[in-house]
Amino acid sequence: MSDTEQTLANLLKEDRRFEPPAELAANANVTAEAYDAAAADPEAFWAAQAERLSWSQPWEQVLDWSEPPFAKWFVGGKLNAAYNCVDRHVEAGRGDKVALHWVGEPEGDARDLTYAELQAEVAKAANALIDLGVRTGDRVAIYMPMIPEAIVAMLACARLGAPHTVVFGGFSADALASRIVDCGAKVVITADGGYRRGAASALKPAVDDARGKAAEHGHTVDKVLVVRRTGQEVAFDEGTDVWWHDVVDGASSEHTPEAFDAEHPLYVMYTSGTTGKPKGILHTTGGYLTGAAYTHHAVFDLKPETDVYWCTADIGWVTGHSYIVYGPLANGVTQVLYEGTPDHPEPGRWWKIISDYKVSLFYTAPTAIRSFMKQGREVPDRHDLSSLRILGSVGEPINPEAYVWYRHVIGGDRTPVVDTWWQTETGAMMISPLPGVTAGKPGSAMTPLPGITAEVVDEDGNPVPNGSGGYLVVTEPWPSMLRTIYGDDKRFVDTYWSRFRKQGYYFAGDGAKKDDEGHIWVLGRVDDVMNVSGHRLSTTEIESALISHPKVAESAVVGATDPDTGQAVVAYVILRDEAGDGGPDIIKELSDHVRTQIGPIAKPRQIMIVPELPKTRSGKIMRRLLRDVAEGRDVGDTQTLADASIMELISASKATTT
Ligand code: 6R9
Prior knowledge:
- By secondary structure, this protein is α/β, with parallel strands linked by helices.
- Helix content is 32%, strand content 23%.
- It has 21 helices and 31 strands.
- Strands 5-4-17-16-18-19-20 form a seven-stranded mixed sheet, with helices on both faces. It has a five-stranded parallel sheet with strand order 7-6-8-11-12, with helices on both faces.
- The chain is globular.
- Bound molecules: ligand 6R9.
- Residues 271, 317-319, 394-397, 419-424, 445, 508-510, 522, 524-525, 531, 534, 536 line the site of ligand 6R9.
């Protein structure tokens, strides 16, 4: 039995079931009938979901799928995403309702923003962006800490129909530059810095650097709008840089939002693919907002009058886009937004926030849950978590023990856990329990949501029988699906639609298994994409970074199972002859190099300097063997290797932890 099969066999022995709480089931937003209704008439179902939004002009056609895989949803409809997320709640008399309970990292640095205040801020920022030359269709890059201005910036762009591309603040200047160049961002919105683990961490220098690098590629950034957050010293280029407080604070809070076509681009989010170059996933307005709002309403059983919601993601990831900004705000929720890390200044920070703000719906990642398990239950037990009603999980498979701990220790055994499978590309949750309907199985994402049709198929695209594994595919288009890879339609078709071209299925890149009852267990990527703490990293991207170091001849990167982060980056490196043994600091040098090229999250857990890499006769690196070494297993079958003795050399090489 292979390792994956063993894991699967263990998983499928899992027979614990958690029924929905009776009261929740009785008052659930979505009931079991929704599955049948959606299956009977998917377009009518999605049209009803789109009615959650305010449209300035109704659509003429729900779906135009005449040129697959290029979908158009709500054809002819017009709307403004920012109006839907902010203004309409104010117009409906809910202006005094808190939109954001913001909790900054320095203790006591907190602020509440009502919907009316948010509306004024967004309008001012939109007016300021117009003054800086931003027009409908222009791209704006956002590189910010988790402060309210980050959300204001996103919504101001949406209001103008200027697609934003938010780059995670932990990414390096190089990564930022390549994204700025790829989407041709005209303006960058940033801050001097943000707070992390008690210290001010700079952002502006990376923007300066990225602007220079973009210029080397022939791309000019016209303006950089800078929020003063930490007060740290920054270089200021009078021709380009503009302080937020100089141009936004004094701007008019009157701005009439224009309605854009349902298919008008809303944002580009870069994500790792199997090749070195990140893919700019393009989402458009009407379908995306419909998907985000509907799933947030359904999966969190959202009762906007009474619930307080908190998603711990960063806005630099798709989860922050769909489940901090667009879904929750379109639904008019009160939510917590926080800056910093879970365990600073104290390990119980998150639990204190939940108890302070009476959070009822909570959404986080398995990697965080595992790190809390390690600290022990004494930490959460010191806080009153009785306000919690539903717990969500996203980003990677949640192992049954973490699921049960989450439900038991954090949820007091009352709360359903919704394990939500989706991707940057899908825009919104796709496979998940419904908290008022589904009897949850720890470790399973369970069932496609009403309106979504997913399958597990074999090599030929045929559904596998219950009890078997295969490729996870989506069989019909859905409103929040990506529309293309920015500037590269061919790559879009090749990457997602060519594996099962005949059937016209979207292939997600994940493997999954159907259990005896047909419930879906997502197993993780079947391609060269790693998942480290819920963050997608490409093996090729890190290999390319390593190879760009002058001492490196060749490298191979694998994702090895890690008890804390799910997977961890393990790099094998062959040095150039002239580099000798690389010198005493070679490991640190290489590790720092990856850090500056991509960012701290890509830093390998281990770097091994090896004399050779195992390759097949056709020259393909045998990553399976390298994963075996990285995970401390005996190297199995090496028959297909061009030179079997290589594995002995590699296993003997000293592993060095970075
Ligand atoms: C939302 C998000 C997508 C990849 C996806 C899969 C993994 C996400 C999961 C899950 C198992 C879940 N993934 N949620 N695997 N169970 N509930 O994470 O988007 O960053 O694009 O990552 O994450 O491998 O393909 P993204």
